[in-house]
Amino acid sequence: xxxxxxxxxxxxxxxxxxxxxxxxxxxxxxxxxxxxxxxxxxxxxxxxxxxxxxxxxxxxxxxxxxxxxxxxxxxxxxxxxxxxxxxxxxxxxxxxxxxxxxxxxxxxxxxxxxxxxxxxxxxxxxxxxxxxxxxxxxxxxxxxxxxxxxxxxxxxxxxxxxxxxxxxxxxxxxxxxxxxxxxxxxxxxxxxxxxxxxxxxxxxxxxxxxxxxxxxxxxxxxxxxxxxxxxxxxxxxxxxxxxxxxxxxxxxxxxxxxxxxxxxxxxxxxxxxxxxxxxxxxxxxxxxxxxxxxxxxxxxxxxxxxxxxxxxxxxxxxxxxxxxxxxxxxxxxxxxxxxxxxxxxxxxxxxxxxxxxxxxxxxxxxxxxxxxxxxxxxxxxxxxxxxxxxxxxxxxxxxxxxxxxxxxxxxxxxxx
Length: 416
Description:
The chain is α/β, with parallel strands linked by helices. 26% of the residues lie in helices and 22% in strands.
């Protein structure tokens, strides 16, 4: 497939929004972090963007007044963007240097993430400015609990990922190529910035699928965002290589990293990936002074061994410090792991107790709405600093970045 053929592909109608939603059969849990999530979707392309009120999946696919039900995205496609971080090899092959996989890609083929294609010995990002998810969410949904609590984020995601997680709740995006998605918006980096400014949103977040797989789009938006006073946040599996990671961190404010487990065996069997690069990424983020929060999705019988949880917490405290927030998140059956029950709340509470005993200062339990430990507590006086119900901030007892009860400094990003 030549470059002209690639460009033509993205200029054609692929599939209607209505058909996409019907075929995806998205569940409330699975898309809680995706297109049918909490908040509102920004719909449109080029200058014709429309903000639609969030509705249920059934309402979206049947509502007569939703003008996008039977409309494919037909605006002109943006130019293909040459990829960053790759080396040209013989016979027009290339080697991608962006993530731990370092894929060798023959001419006409794509890397493991499905988003980087070799055209005549040059590597291109085929999802650049082609997000398949554009949405406004609460920042707590990321989760980021120590960054501008109660504010909104403009979220962008595309097709593709360099991991193959068996219980991915956003597999509708991450485990598909752009052609399999058959659906995308056209939004330039400048367009994304303008949307955030227009809606008074202080932070742009790259999420839903792995930002590494649309690195150039993330980087270009972030560069512009920093000149406009906007914050940049991304939620990642953490498997970037050090050089592109350090470069992206220069225009980043905060990062949420999924530490999926704490054994190489788990990473290999669950994600077809590796643990070591993720640990290296965590160290680099901390070394560069960027705000970091960690999420551990606890899957029954897969990664809930108490000894491994203790080792993980000890590693975090030793290598990153006790003040890095750690979120234990409840698993719900999804994608290729549907035969397990949701994580017992008692398992999450046991993990919380282990982390507390090890000396982690800020620990929360997620995906259990109404749970006491969905809130943040002062490590000194143990009073509630931020009280939450799921993604909603109910009470904020911070004063100038300190606990209002005892004056203990609470690390984070508290001012816009």
